[in-house]
Design goal:
The structure holds two protein chains of two kinds.
Chain A: H1 10-21, H2 27-31, H3 33-39, E1 56-57, E2 70-77, E3 89-91, E4 94-98, E5 105-109, E6 115-120, H4 127-131, E7 142-144, E8 153-157, E9 162-167, E10 173-178, E11 193-195, E12 198-201, E13 213-218, E14 224-229, H5 234-237, E15 278-280, E16 285-289, E17 310-315, E18 321-326, E19 342-347, E20 353-360, E21 365-370, E22 376-381, E23 389-392, E24 399-401, E25 413-416, E26 430-432, E27 437-443, E28 445-455, E29 461-471, E30 484-489, E31 496-502, E32 510-513, E33 517-521, E34 526-531, E35 537-542, E36 552-556, E37 559-566, H6 574-578, H7 589-592, E38 605-611
Parallel strand pairs in A: 1-32
Antiparallel strand pairs in A: 2-38, 3-4, 4-5, 5-6, 7-8, 8-9, 9-10, 11-12, 12-13, 13-14, 15-16, 16-17, 17-18, 19-20, 20-21, 21-22, 23-24, 25-28, 26-27, 27-30, 28-29, 30-31, 32-33, 33-34, 34-35, 36-37, 37-38
Chain B: H1 7-15, H2 17-21, E1 36-41, E2 43-44, E3 48-49, H3 55-66, E4 71-76, H4 83-88, E5 95-100, E6 107-108, E7 113-122, E8 142-144, H5 149-156, H6 160-169, H7 185-193, E9 199-203, H8 204-212, E10 218-222, E11 238-245, H9 250-262, H10 264-274
Parallel strand pairs in B: 1-4, 1-5, 8-9
Antiparallel strand pairs in B: 2-3, 5-11, 6-11, 7-9, 7-10, 7-11
Helix pairs in contact in B: 1-10, 3-9, 3-10, 7-8
The chains are: A mainly beta, B alpha/beta.
Binding site for Ca(2+) (chain A): 207, 292, 334
Cofactor (chain A): Ca(2+); pyrroloquinoline quinone
Protein name (chain A): Methanol dehydrogenase
Chain lengths: 631, 283
């Protein structure tokens, strides 16, 4: 809720009052230290900076006028290659850094930057590596501030399916629970998410017969509080009594089993969630998206496949869903709906102030919902080249499909936009509440989908599809460049304030600041800053490796810093990481990014910037060895 | 057609035929005959494997000899599922062994044997020959190959969903999107031997050799050919196996048909040696 202080709307003023004095009977927010921590420019206590997940900082020491003097302040190598998604956390004097598998966590001392206070390196079954579909990434950490009895904790996930609480002061393991069973193909790549005294964790591995779920654990003990599935009977999907009562046309009860699935197919129906969460202390709901249905071959699962591909608003205390809006019924393209949810308070077209949730989906549509009841307010194309859908009918919520771009078995479809990677993937974007603009990193990639069936003997057949991915219509199809975009979007008008092309995808997301800046990293290894009003490119820096995480900022000892992970990989970088050359490998990603190797190679670390590179070591005595410590 | 369970008896009878067939060995290829170019995968055991040790490699050698030709294997290191598209159609070779007799991609010869899907269980398990027998409560884990009628039997018997994780573990949960991933045939049998699977359901010739050589007594029970999907579509469980040639290669088919007739005793002996329970060919 960092934006409360800076927002000028009457609505937020009321909300601020509620935070202070609990005048409206909402003590939950007042109790939550994380809300207070996230307001400070010194901290970045959760993946999206605050519960609104807007990646927005009020800090403006670094601004449009001086950003060109931004220089490296210090750097830290994690010693791990492979894709580094997410962003570090900063709380007070410590920065917490995470890595992809083997999922090491470092606590760094910001007074002597790069000095390791502690390191947590779990032992994991190597099986985990084989099971993970798309590189061995991890999206980050969560922080719980402690309550005097239980110490402050860092929460982390391991690829082998465990969630671990680590003492934030010492790095010692505090508790560890198995959330996903690697033996049945379920892995964890998601960043855990702390809300009040609960920690949320999702699941991965949809294609391997995993039935997706989100689980809340007691942050102090690891005891499971509740678990809600994406498919199955209503009591297991945890639908509230008034589920979708404001929007009954979304569907209400009894739809998670054989009404939208054939037979028992829901039991292996996917709908995992491995993206991001957001939370509103006023509604007491948290928001996230469930992923694609399984199996991938859509002919095996006739029906709408509820509640996969759904934006959920669930009560954090009970897990019950108040609303669920399915964006892509019966997905045919692998448009997993797990992307970031950003919360804002804005006036709608009629001038009514509303609590909003904005979600750029993999399917190429950016959705804005009323987050109190799930009502769909707008659904705009992320780019005018999106073609699988003509439009989303705002009254029914149903996408109007163009059958030419369907992926049926008897149909070869060319130039489907977006590709299976989506026009937006796991990147964590930002929202500037003053400008009322969302800054979105976009993939500009389309695909050909060629089904084939190869009979073997004795009635055996293999149904498959060859995916070819290549730049969208605005890119260079000969040179395989022009694979990304960066855009500023107004969710009320549906207009883009500005948009720019990029050579490769902006995979990791964006950071917005009150300095009128938007920062982001590119797959080919740049961090860039643009004027957030105009989109003008103001500054960039060449990193050791490509970026798939999102930048963050913090202020320490009076200096504002910007930090970002480098380390190319993830689905986009899978060709580089595993040295694949068949263009259809990595579900087509290898072909799309075949020229990436000419721009970057693997790496892994954090790079921190400040104006003129100012940092604690400017005082050369800092960190010097001054002889044995006196006893 | 009527189900015949006398495979073992037939195999026993055919054992003597090998001797009778011996004179064929003396038939020398004519100097003018070109080698028979056989499309073959090196990774398709038990049918086809490097050094021509596979069951179908042996059949191919028998047929080539009967046709008075030299067997020339054109090897692919990809699974046999790609042979027609990537080799036969591109004229890299001229024959593919072990196609279904009604395979529309090719011109098929007359069948050289017929067999069906079978239950593979420990020898002491009592089981009938109806597909529904797979649905018994005590059977929990099934080893089957993906995209086969065996998978459809599990689905119809209400066993598929609960078995999926186990079956995927047989390929280490390797991603099946965009690539051909299949359970190795010997693994199907080993899972039954080591007790991880209560049974395997497989095409008999997929597993016959491993059942025969298993370290613990197993049995193959052919399943009756009366399986329908819930929507009424008949799913055949018995199949004629033939040799495929390109559709415009009628002359080669004719030559191979003659060779099949000529070499029948030797073919039957090889099938018996492999341990495959056979059925009467469909015409």
């Amino acid at each position: 809720m960092i934006n409360l202080r800076t927002s000028v709307s009457a609505f937020t003023l009321v909300a601020t009052a509620a935070l202070g004095v609990a005048a409206t009977g909402l003590p939950a927010a007042a109790n939550d230290k994380l809300v207070e921590l996230s307001k400070s420019e010194a901290n970045w206590p959760m993946t999206g900076k605050n519960y609104s997940a807007n990646n927005y900082s009020t800090a403006k020491q670094i601004n449009v006028d001086n950003v060109k003097t931004l220089r490296p302040a210090w750097a830290f190598s994690t010693g791990v290659l492979h894709g580094h998604e997410g962003t570090p956390l900063v709380i007070g004097d410590k920065m917490f850094v995470h890595t992809p598998f083997p999922n090491i966590t470092f606590a760094l001392d910001l007074n002597e930057p790069g000095k390791i206070d502690w390191m947590h390196k779990p032992k994991q079954s190597p099986t985990a590596r084989a099971v993970a579909c798309c590189d061995v990434v991890n999206r980050g950490l969560a922080y719980w501030p402690g309550d005097g009895k239980t110490p402050s904790l860092i929460l982390k996930t391991q690829l082998d399916g465990h969630i671990v609480a680590v003492n934030a002061e010492t790095g010692e393991e505090f508790w560890k629970m198995e959330n996903s069973d690697i033996k049945v193909g379920s892995t964890l790549t998601i960043a855990p998410y702390v809300i009040k005294d609960s920690v949320l964790v999702g699941s991965s591995g949809a294609e391997l017969g995993v039935r997706g779920y989100v689980t809340a654990y007691d942050v102090k003990t690891g005891a499971q509080k509740w678990r809600a599935y994406a498919t199955g009977p209503d009591e297991e999907v945890k639908l509230a009594k008034d589920f979708n009562s404001k929007n009954p046309h979304y569907g209400q009860f009894g739809l998670g089993t054989n009404k939208t699935w054939e037979g028992d197919a829901w039991k292996i129906g996917g709908g995992t969630n491995w993206g991001w969460y957001a939370y509103d202390p006023d509604t007491n709901l948290f928001y996230y998206g469930s992923g694609n249905p399984a199996p991938w071959n859509e002919t095996m699962r006739p029906g709408d496949n509820k509640w996969t591909m759904t934006i959920f608003g669930r009560d954090i205390d009970t897990g019950e869903a108040k609303f669920g809006y399915q964006k892509t019924p019966h997905d045919e393209w692998d448009y997993a709906g797990v992307n970031v949810m950003m919360l804002s308070e804005q006036k709608d077209k009629t001038g009514k102030l509303r609590k909003l949730l904005t979600h750029p989906d993999r399917n190429g549509i950016v959705y804005t919902l009323d987050r109190e009841d799930g009502t769909l307010i707008s659904a705009d194309k992320l780019d005018d080249t999106v073609n699988w859908v003509k439009q989303v009918d705002l009254k029914t919520g149903i996408p109007v499909r163009d059958p030419e771009f369907a992926t049926r078995m008897d149909h070869k479809a060319t130039e489907i936009c977006p590709s299976a990677m989506g026009y937006h993937n796991q990147g964590h974007d930002s929202y500037d509440p003053e400008k009322q603009l969302f800054y979105m990193g976009i993939n500009h990639i389309c695909m050909d989908w060629e089904p084939f069936m190869l009979p073997y003997r004795a009635g055996q057949f293999f149904v498959g599809a060859t995916l070819w991915m290549y730049p969208g219509p605005k890119g260079d199809r000969q040179g395989y460049e022009g694979l990304g975009q960066i855009k500023a979007y107004n969710a009320i008008t549906g207009k883009y304030a500005w948009e720019k092309m990029e050579r490769f995808a902006v995979w990791g997301g964006t950071l917005a600041t009150a300095g009128d800046l938007v920062f982001y990293g590119t797959l080919d290894g740049f961090i860039k800053a643009r004027n957030s009003k105009t989109g003008d490119l103001l500054w960039k820096y060449r990193l050791p490796s490509g970026v798939i995480g999102h930048p963050m900022t913090y202020t320490h000892d009076g200096n504002q810093y910007v930090a970002i992970y480098y380390g190319v990989g993830g689905w986009a970088g899978v060709g580089l990481v595993f040295d694949l050359t068949d263009p259809t490998a990595g579900l087509g990603a290898v072909g799309a990014f075949k020229n990436l190797q000419h721009y970057t190679q693997m790496g892994g670390g954090v790079q921190v910037f400040s104006l003129n590179g100012k940092n604690p070591y400017d005082d050369v005595n800092v960190g010097e060895w001054t002889g044995p410590k006196a006893n | 057609m009527a189900f015949r369970s006398n495979g073992r008896a037939r195999a026993a009878l055919l054992g003597g035929a090998v001797l009778a067939a011996a004179p064929f060995a003396a038939a020398l290829p004519t100097a003018a005959a070109e080698p028979l170019r056989i499309c073959a995968s090196s990774v398709e055991a038990p049918y086809s494997e490097a050094k021509a040790k596979g069951f179908e490699n042996k059949i191919a050698e028998i047929i080539a000899k009967a046709a008075g030709r030299e067997a020339e294997f054109v090897w692919s290191d990809k699974p046999a599922i790609y042979l027609v598209r990537d080799y036969l159609d591109k004229k890299a070779c001229d024959v593919v062994f072990g196609v279904d007799a009604d395979d529309e991609r090719v011109l098929a010869t007359k069948p050289y044997f017929r067999t069906g899907y079978a239950f593979v269980t420990p020898a002491d398990v009592q089981i009938g020959s109806d597909w529904k027998d797979a649905g018994r409560d005590e059977f929990r884990n099934f080893a089957v190959r993906f995209s086969t009628p065996a998978e459809l039997i599990l689905k119809a018997a209400g066993k598929y969903e609960n078995n999926l994780s186990y079956n995927l573990s047989l390929v280490n949960f390797e991603d099946k999107r965009n690539k051909y991933t299949q359970v190795p045939a010997d693994k199907l049998v080993n899972e039954v031997v080591n007790g991880d699977a209560d049974m395997a359901i497989a095409f008999a010739s997929d597993v016959a050799r491993y059942v025969k050589n298993a370290s613990k007594p197993l049995k193959l029970t052919l399943i009756k050919d009366d399986f329908e999907r819930s929507d009424g579509m008949k799913i055949p469980l018995h199949f004629d196996q033939a040799i495929g040639v390109r559709k415009d290669d009628a002359e080669l088919r004719k030559e191979l048909d003659a060779a099949i007739d000529k070499a029948k005793p030797e073919i039957d002996a090889a099938i018996a040696e492999e341990g495959i329970p056979t059925l009467q060919p469909n015409g």
